[in-house]
Amino acid sequence: MSRPLRLPRHLEQAIWDHARRQLPSECVGVLGADGEGALVAVYPLANVAARPERCYVADPAELLRALKAMRRADLTLGAIYHSHPRGPATPSATDLSLAEYPVPYLIADVEGHVLRAYLLPQNQEVPIEVG
User: Does 26 participate in catalysis according to the annotation?
Assistant: First the structure.
């Protein structure tokens, strides 16, 4: 099992707020981490998928801007999040096939209000500690 992902409560709230604003579509965003790996910033992104109610594709220009903003703030990509409006909080086949980054992927099941994290594409769950 992986070491727990520590998620500050205000970042968790920002993820839930973003997910609810985007209903019935999936939301997507990234989290910035400081030099010690602590998650410290959230960057909501536009979902430009052809069927955003079924999957997510982060707007490439917005993702690039977020990564550049992280670099200017001495942060790195710490995690990626997206929502499943009707659950479950487990990776879909699309999530597994499109995973590109070696960071935890957080999935927010909006209907069930469940947040889980995984290392993808190996589909290994990472425990989350909120606080």
Answer: yes
Instruction: Please give the distance of CA 17 from its chain centroid, rounded to a whole number.
Output: 13
Q: Where are the domains of the chain?
A: 5-130
pLDDT, tens digit (0-9, with 9 covering 90-100), for 103-119: 999 999 999 999 999 99
Q: From the candidates 12, 26, 53, 100, which is the catalytic residue?
A: 26
pLDDT, one tens digit per residue, over 18-61 is: 999 999 999 999 999 999 999 999 999 999 999 999 999 999 99
User: d(Cα 60, Cα 44) in Å, to the nearest integer?
Assistant: 12
Class of domain 5-130: alpha beta
* Global pTM value: 0.95
